[in-house]
Design brief:
7-stranded antiparallel sheet; binds glycine; Glutamine Phosphoribosylpyrophosphate, subunit 1, domain 1; about 15% strand; alpha+beta; 24 strands
């Protein structure tokens, strides 16, 4: 196995495939990458050792994988005491919102995929943010009619959607929890009130966003105490967050949607430097939605995940479906043709995603058509060549609605966090959780950061008079790339996986599934494989091993840090957990 190579962005050379508008809009660097620099003890130390050695953590009863050791520890305690994966998720999310505040939290949204150990049923819950009722399709355009600059729209109240995470935590516990709800917050409350040491990753993130954090007085107070960014090792407390957790523990999610915390959210959004449109009615109307799981066949496995408003399961399923006719096992990870096929399958999937996928409560989405075998076979014929596709455009999946949409801009940024849990009852949870960009809108209320999820909508409402499916509309949920995924074999879980990373989530997850299923890599090896991802033409790569071959095929190649946060559990004779070496997370199990 090649070692993972991290390096600064470096354009190696230009090939013949042109950069697109999406790529031009994606010039913002990803979340900072660091490793956790503190001593760990006991099982967490063993987990870190396994991760450093490139081995999965093995266990028999339960496993939790998340982005920070303190969150993993909190989830492990719940599972050890007989809690379910849903209980553990509540504890993990409560801690993540404190120790990894740049990525997810109570002010954001999430998608949850659940495998029920009793019934074998897969359920998907949509806790995505909604646009305020006062939002309009032109909301992200400037006075001149041109799209706002990304951070001009992000920083402030305009980008804030109604958070879904608190209600999703409550709903998951109501459906599948066993543990006493208030007790699930005890670690997070203690850490918020008594403090913890800022990790290098959090410190680097604060450092990088200091100027934007300074705009909001509450964010400045929390992250830039005495005017200077927090540093790694600083003792950090967040009593306002502790207070919000105490309300959540005592009263459930109600205070977030109709009570004191709702009022603080609205106040913060309306009085931000760039005021937003959120009103109390928007919070009061918020609902978690159960959606049909979207499952794609890959070599006899069912690859299941979150359908619209996420594009995750559709695009991952389409990439795999396009590759099904090809012998990926025979080609293996070192053959340049493997990466030509994966790269162009991914581009084809992104072309359909950009045109057709949006919130299906507002826009008819051809979910069946996109994953139809005959459609995928036709599209896969395009891959039967030796060089990169010179041009990629959306296909025409079968549907009983007329589909006349313009292509979207893709601006989703690589932030977010992924939680994977297996409990002792056979339940499995895969949940991707986000406040969108690092530090979301940079606006704080009640001790947590509010999301900037509304910038996951297309900034343009139309192109040449043709509407964009993912345009802003009142109450609508912005299209996501989050891909919390479960792979099943004859109804039994084989793999649970997901990642942060903006729209690169889709190739991160698809590639790791191929590495595990086709190349037989264990979860840690599959996660640690150097990333090579292509969404819109340019091949983003962590390593340069195949750069010359891919350039010869006609791809533009860019070497850069690719800051995924893949967290996975595989199922078989034992549970095996893998945590992304690019972040601070760990797998813990017994
Ligand atoms: N904001 C990241 C995503 O939903 O894809």
């Amino acid at each position: 196995m090649k070692s993972v190579v991290f390096s600064l962005a470096l354009t190696l050379a230009l090939g013949t495939v042109p950069a697109t508008a999406q790529e031009a809009a994606d010039g913002v660097a990803p979340e900072a990458e660091t490793t956790l620099g503190r001593a760990l003890t006991g099982p967490l130390a063993a987990s870190q050792e396994a991760k450093d050695a490139g081995r999965p953590v093995e266990a028999d009863d339960w496993m939790v994988v998340a982005a920070h050791p303190l969150a993993v520890e909190a989830g492990g305690r719940v599972l050890r005491e007989g809690g379910t994966a849903a209980d553990a998720m509540v504890a993990v999310q409560a801690v993540l919102g404190l120790v990894e505040p740049q990525s997810s939290g109570l002010g954001g949204g999430a998608f949850l995929v659940w495998f029920d150990g009793n019934t074998g049923k897969v359920t998907t819950l949509d806790g995505r943010e909604t646009a305020p009722l006062a939002a309009t399709p032109q909301m992200l355009l400037g006075e001149d009619g041109a799209p706002l600059g990304f951070f001009d729209a992000v920083v402030g109240g305009l980008s804030v959607g109604v958070p879904g995470t608190p209600m999703l935590m409550e709903e998951a516990h109501r459906r599948w929890g066993r543990a006493n709800w208030p007790g699930l917050f005890s670690e997070a409350i203690t850490l918020a009130e008594e403090g913890f040491n800022v990790s290098p990753r959090m410190a680097a993130s604060v450092q990088r966003d200091a100027e934007r954090l300074a705009i909001d007085p509450k964010s400045a107070q929390v992250f830039l105490p005495n005017g200077s960014p927090l540093e790694a090792g600083d003792r950090f407390t967040n009593p306002a967050y502790g207070n919000s957790l105490r309300q959540l523990a005592a009263e459930g999610a109600a205070p977030f949607y109709t009570g004191d915390i709702a009022a603080q959210i609205v106040e913060a959004v309306q009085n931000a430097a760039l005021p937003g449109l959120l009103k109390p009615i928007d919070l009061a109307l918020y609902q978690i939605k159960e959606r049909p799981a979207v499952c794609a066949d890959y070599r006899g496995y069912d690859v299941c995940g979150m359908g619209p408003p996420s594009s995750g399961a559709l695009a991952v399923g389409q990439i795999l479906g396009l590759l099904s006719p090809f012998d990926m096992t025979g080609l293996g990870p070192d053959d340049p043709q493997t990466w030509r096929l994966i790269g162009d399958a991914s581009r084809l999937a992104f072309a359909d995603r950009g045109r057709y996928v949006a919130d299906s409560d507002y826009v008819p989405v051809p979910v069946q058509g996109i994953l139809e075998r005959s459609y995928l076979n036709d599209r896969a014929e395009l891959l039967r060549r030796d060089t990169a596709l010179p041009i990629v455009s959306a296909g025409t999946p079968e549907f009983d609605h007329a589909l006349n949409w313009a292509d979207d801009d893709d601006r989703a940024r690589p932030s977010t966090s992924h939680i994977t849990i297996a409990d002792a009852y056979g339940n499995v949870l895969s949940m991707t959780t986000t406040i969108e960009n690092a530090f979301g809108s940079h606006v704080m209320a009640a001790g947590f950061l509010l999301n900037n999820e509304l910038t996951d909508f297309s900034f343009r409402s139309h192109r040449d008079g043709v509407p964009v499916a993912n345009r802003v509309e009142p109450g609508k949920r912005p299209r996501s790339s989050m891909a919390p995924t479960l792979v099943l074999d004859n109804g039994e879980p084989v793999l649970a996986i997901g990642s942060p990373g903006g729209s690169r989530i889709i190739p991160y997850v698809a590639n790791a599934i191929i590495a595990h299923l086709d190349w037989g890599l264990d979860v840690q090896q599959a996660i640690s494989l150097p990333h090579r991802v292509n969404r819109f033409g340019t091949y983003d790569m962590e390593d340069d091993a195949l750069a010359a071959d891919l350039q010869a095929f006609g791809f533009e190649v860019k070497q850069r840090a690719l800051n995924s946060g893949l967290h996975a559990i595989s199922f078989g004779d034992r549970l095996r957990g893998g945590a992304d070496p690019r972040r601070e997370g760990l797998a813990l199990g017994e």
